[in-house]
Specification:
- By secondary structure, the chain is an alpha+beta fold.
- About 75% of the residues lie in helices and about 10% in strands.
- The chain has three helices and four strands.
- A hairpin with a 5-residue loop joins strand 3 and strand 4.
- The longest helix has about 140 residues.
Length: about 230
Amino acid sequence: MNCITDANIGNWFSSTMEDIRNKMLFQGTAEMTETGMDWVQTHRKTVRSVLDTCSKKCKDDEIIFETIDSYKTDLENKNASLVEKRNAIAKRLSEVEGKNEQKSKIIEKIEMVRVEQAKKKELIVSQNKANKDRLKNLNKAKQVFQGRLGLEIRKIHEKLQFIFRDINPKDSECVYTFMLRISEGGLYQIVSSDPPLDCMAHLEQRLQETNNFSAFLANVRREFLAQKPQ
């Protein structure tokens, strides 16, 4: 191979190689730029798509969250309403129980009143029977003592006044009296006597024990006879 000695040929070769290098660089740069632009466009499209997807997802998530919040609020309202209804039911049940308790107490009181009335009725019947017996004894004693011993019986309000005459031999019209009543329990009770007799309480007790009114009148007259004439 012959050596190249022409300086122009060397310059031409260097210039040509430089042009080739520049063309290749330009071509490579253009291709890279074009490829880069494609990548940029693709990236932008991808980013835009991702952003659109994210935006849509965010909107969907917002709707979901709003729906969840709405359900949550509705559930809280329903729970509050349920609690209020439970409280109302509990209050109503308490009122019903209170009324049932009151009803039971009223029924118990009615039963107690009924029993008490039945007892009172029995007592009244018993007292009426006892009073009838006492009236019989009084009438019998009245007939005996009024005819034979000059006894007079007067009714003064709810009491009976017994008047004895022919006791004082110096004054046959001088009267000796005592006042008697029948208590609510059906017992004879001496209210007063004139002149007073110290033994009247004992005579009253004997009368209540024996219910013998004739003997009681005889004993009272005997005590009046034992009084010294005034």
